[in-house]
């Protein structure tokens, strides 16, 4: 439940959206890319995550099997 529970928390969603809308740097690591997807941030952009989340994220992002992605 960890990453999925974290991703849907209203405070997390609000913070992510405020940064995105304020044109600030938004970054994710490990499974936190799921929080960006839940906030509807970066549709179609390149993204990566912990490998077990690939299927969940591939429909929303241009998923890359890389250690680091910058888009």
Structure explained in plain terms:
The model has no long low-confidence stretch (mean pLDDT 93). This protein is globular. It contains four helices and two strands, in the order αααβαβ. The protein starts with a helix and ends in an 8-residue tail after the last strand. The protein is 39% helix and 6% strand. Strands 1-2 form a two-stranded parallel ribbon.
Helix content: 25-40%
Main sheet record: 2 strands, parallel
Identify the overall geometry. Answer: globular
Rounded radius of gyration (Å): 11 Å
- Kindly report the average pLDDT value: 93
Oligomer: single chain
Low-confidence stretches: none
Alpha carbon gap, first and last residue: 28 Å
- The neighbouring-strand order within the major sheet is 1-2
Task: Tell me how many strands there are.
Answer: 2
Query: Which strand-content bin applies to the residues?
Result: 5-15%
Q: Output the helix-strand order.
A: HHHEHE
How many separate helices?
4
- Which class do the helix and strand fractions yield? mainly alpha
């Amino acid at each position: 439940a960890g990453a999925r529970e974290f991703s849907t928390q209203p405070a997390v969603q609000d913070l992510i959206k405020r940064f995105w809308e304020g044109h600030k740097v938004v970054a994710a690591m490990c499974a936190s890319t799921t929080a960006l997807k839940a906030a509807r941030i970066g549709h179609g952009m390149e993204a990566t995550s912990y490998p077990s989340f690939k299927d969940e994220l591939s429909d929303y992002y241009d998923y890359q099997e890389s250690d680091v992605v910058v888009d």
